[in-house]
Amino acid sequence: MLKILFIADVIGSPGREALRARLPGLKRGTGAHFTIVNAENSAGGFGVTREAAADLFASGADVLTGGNHLWDRKDSIAYIAEEPRLVRPANLPAGTPGHGTLVFRAADGTSIGVVNLLGRVFMKEADCPFRTADAAVESLRSQGVRVIVVDFHAETTAEKVAMGWHLDGRVSAVIGTHTHVQTADERVLPQGTACVSDAGMTGGFESVIGMDRGAALRRFLTLMPERLTPAEGDLRVNAVLVTVDPSTGRAAAIERIQLPHRSVSAGTVKLLTGDQPALSVRYAARAEVERLIAGGVMPTLALVSVGEDPASQIYLKKKSAACAEAGIAIRRVALAAGADTRAVVERVRALGADPDVHGILVQLPLGPQVNAQAVLESIPPARDVDGFHPENVGRLGLGLPCLMPCTPRGILELLRYHQVPLAGKHAVVLGRSPIVGRPLATLLSLKGLDCTVTIGHSASGPALRALAREADLLIAAIGRPEFVTGDWVKSGATVVDVGIHRVPDPTRRGGSRITGDVEFESVAAVAGALSPVPGGVGPMTVAMVVANTVLAAERQAGGVRV
Ligand code: GUN
After folding, report:
1. Three-state DSSP state, 203
2. Is residue 366 lining ligand 1, measured as CB closer than 6 Å?
3. CA of 298 to the centre of ligand 1 (A)
4. Of 135, 296, 524, 540, which has the most beta carbons under 10 Å away?
5. Is 304 among the domain residues?
6. Are 97 and 186 in the same domain?
7. Regions in the chain scoring below 50 on pLDDT
């Protein structure tokens, strides 16, 4: 029997990587005589290029098929016209470059006709795919070709199922592509045509149909244009294997294939990424802001800084942008580098007395000439969106409603979002700062979260490593680049990296890279879950500035929420 392997839509370089690694073994394992690869998304997620096609052929493809995105790269049209192993949609106007139907020879010598068709429901206009199929089948049959495979690139299940029935007994297989989610409806119809509504996709499954899920979700949530790039995480190959009697062209069997390649970019560790939960927090805040504005309250955050500390400038920019995105008004108060305690306190008090200001955030550090504690204590606790005022610190310790510091609150939300279990677990917090380590340790030990908590710090000495190895949940907030290495981590532990540092790296363009308190590679090899830097805790901290400002505004506007 003839075995035909059909590889579902290959999405960008991650999809090609998965195919390069898995196709040779898949062909050996299935005994495939002929391999068709849908390549219309194989170059950067949109279209095909000579280079992407060469990669697919080198991986073991015999023929490539297309779809509606085939023409996305204008500079590849000449290539599509001349490539004898590429089949473009057949139901396009006469004169369209390339071929819609071609005949190939499989490894066992059988002639195989390959037809590519576009659906018309919810797609751009094309000629009738059913009538085009009729003509293609007639032409192939007149050439003595009995085995015919149709790649039907269409949006709706109904149109694809209808095509199966339309061609039953006249072609060997009708394989749906385009929607990228493999359907479980594979079957051989009564007259011998194998069908599946969609073969799925080959690429990153931590995604929205192969594309970066953060960007895809933002497009839905904001309705703003957003560039989509192929997803990298959880690479898999999707395919179908069709068994055909070469003497009749009738299919005997169709089998779906889902082959994992690699689970995430760093081995098997689960990445606790912050972009998604941060987006959800900011999105929820935006809805609250709209409610407040409708009620006549314009939520307003004052951002105060002293001097030009470069890291502080970056943080302030991010916080401003996130607040602005949520509809919060920003009052930016940038004091000169030499401003003393009295000058800063006076400005903060004035903001505290202004009824139009709901939140005040004083970006630290303030410089050696300023008593930071005095400044923080001059913020009215109800407006203290950083949760640094002693009243908020005390209320947090008592488990009372308060404004919580943004990084600890963000870490808790990150762990909740990624469903990391906490109750009864041993959390080891490395670092005792009042901004992260101390409040986080307090929160984790509160009723409801129920961790057993140990705080380790710079004075713990060599015991620190042994303490860290005890942790089910290890929080690295020690402020030293790549301080925590794999040998500090218990196998399967959850590790949250709070640090952010720029370190020299001659292998990078620009000569440096961003890293955390954790050495990513060695810890990823041991941990069960790990927050990346950048893209882990950082976006959560920023999102919580937004959430705390909304909370402060609501409470001041009449105690909407406690
Ligand atoms: N400097 C470093 N981290 C922080 C923070 O969380 N809040 C403020 N205000 N300043 C910082």
Report:
1. strand
2. no
3. 24
4. 540
5. yes
6. yes
7. 264-266, 560-562
